[in-house]
Design goal:
There is one protein chain. Helix 1 crosses helix 2. The strands form two sheets. A four-stranded mixed beta sheet has the order 2-1-4-6, with no helix packed on it. It has a four-stranded mixed beta sheet with strand order 3-8-7-5, with no helix packed on it. The chain is of the alpha/beta class. The termini are far apart.
Length: about 140
């Protein structure tokens, strides 16, 4: 079989066939590479640390701005002595586990592709502990 292929490559038709096959393989590989990179958008997601203290996320439940489609890693650290807390993004299945004092948890979240505003909260203390999650193309100007 190898001898037959070597003989065929020496002909004009054989070289043309080989170029078509190699070109097709390159296109398939390139397409797969592009689809994998666009699915991840960022190999290292931006990390957002939310320290829970005095019944508040961070500094008084800050508005958090994300780009459409951006993937972020929320790191939640409960520094509220004697209290249990969690982190939930309303309307999604993103939620940390319930944290005792001193515990940390992390969750990944990929923002929707459309601009919108969402809420995050502690499901145990939602009246006091909630903030805005703003998905916007011009989030950098609103930090």
């Amino acid at each position: 079989m190898v001898e037959r292929i070597k003989k065929e490559i020496k002909t004009h038709r054989g070289r043309l066939t080989l170029m078509i096959v190699l070109g097709a393989l390159l296109l398939i590989g390139w397409r797969d590479l592009e689809s994998n990179s666009s699915a991840q958008d960022s190999p290292n997601p931006r990390e957002i640390l939310l320290k829970i203290q005095n019944m508040s996320f961070g500094n008084n439940n800050p508005a958090i701005y994300l780009k459409p489609g951006e993937t972020v890693r929320f790191i939640i650290h409960n520094l509220d002595a004697g209290m249990k807390h969690d982190f939930v993004i309303q309307g999604t299945d993103v939620a940390s586990r319930i944290l005792d004092y001193g515990e940390k948890d992390a969750v990944l979240f990929t923002a929707p592709r459309d601009e919108k505003e969402m809420k995050y909260e502690c499901s145990l203390h939602a009246l006091m502990m909630q903030g805005r999650l703003v998905v916007s193309h011009d989030y950098a100007f609103q930090r």
